[in-house]
Amino acid sequence: MEQKQKGILVVFSGFSGSGKGTVMQELMRLYAKDYALSVSATTRQPRAQEEDGREYFFKTREEFEKMIEKNELIEYALYVENYYGTPKAYVEEQLAAGRDVILEIEIQGAKKIKEMFPDALLLFVAPKDARTLRERLILRGTESAEVIEARLCRAFEEALGMEAYDYLVINDELMECVKEVHSIIRSEHRKISRNQGFVEKIRDELKFFQKENEI
Ligand code: 5GP
Question: Which residues line ligand 1 (CB under 6 A)?
Fold first, then answer.
């Protein structure tokens, strides 16, 4: 039997307004058994419709700083004046159980993850152009004009760091983008470097046939 692979740590980033949250929701809806989506902690205020423990664990600044002190986060970053961080325990449990874990995080966090887990797969999602991004942020209507401007400035900074990622996906047609993300992750599982157990097993089996032929 093929040896069970360890789960892949997948980082999914994109500009604010790129639709990455929706891409993740659809990915989880279609392929729930394949992936575990990590729920981050944040100090930002919940948006209408957001629930504690579902989109985020909403924390006060003090609570968040306690989590940092107690080393409960794999990584954390400040993003437009709020803290965001990935709780460690869930990610470690799920990876050990062989599930792929998805972190929907921004670029500073993504870079820290790549340093700590060189095997992590980094995906970046972008809209087809900058104008679409601005329109989406305005239409979403969840942030003030000031915060939208700050997020667009941040998007420019993030664009300067896109080379840190392994793959780019364009979120123009939602379902196509979701399928593409799924297919990239499936392909990653087929990499020779992630299948060393199989490679060694089949080598041993073939070696056995060589001996038989010698007799
Ligand atoms: P939003 O406020 O729009 O939900 O998220 C703002 C940014 O924070 C997004 O780019 C999102 O991906 C990022 N983010 C969410 N959770 C985390 C986290 O745990 N760590 C880091 N570094 N970034 C996060």
Answer: 16, 40, 44, 75-77, 79, 84-86, 104-106, 108-109
Q: Where are the alpha helices (DSSP H) in 141-195?
A: 145-159, 174-189
**Which numbered atom of ligand 1 lies nearest the CA of 108?**
22
Of all atoms in ligand 1, which is nearest to the CA of residue 85? 19
Pairing of the two strands 73-79 and 82-87: antiparallel
| Closest atom, ligand 1, to C-alpha of 38 | 19
pLDDT tens, position by position, for the chain (215 residues)?
Answer: 455 678 999 999 999 999 999 999 999 999 999 999 999 999 999 998 999 999 999 999 999 999 999 999 999 999 989 999 999 999 999 999 999 999 999 999 999 999 999 999 999 999 999 999 999 999 988 889 999 999 999 999 999 999 999 999 999 999 999 999 999 999 999 999 999 999 999 999 999 988 777 76
Choose which residue among 106, 108, 111 to substitute to test ligand 1 binding: the one with the highest number of ligand atoms within 8 A of its C-beta.
106
Q: What is the pTM of this model?
A: 0.91
Residue with the smallest CA separation from ligand 1 atom 23 is 105
Spell out the residues 6+ positions from residue 120 whose beta carbon is closer than 8 angstroms to its own. 8, 9, 10, 11, 113, 114
Ligand 1 geometric centre to CA of 175 (Å): 22
**DSSP 3-state assignment of 34?**
coil
Whole-angstrom distance, CA of residue 100 vs CA of residue 94: 7
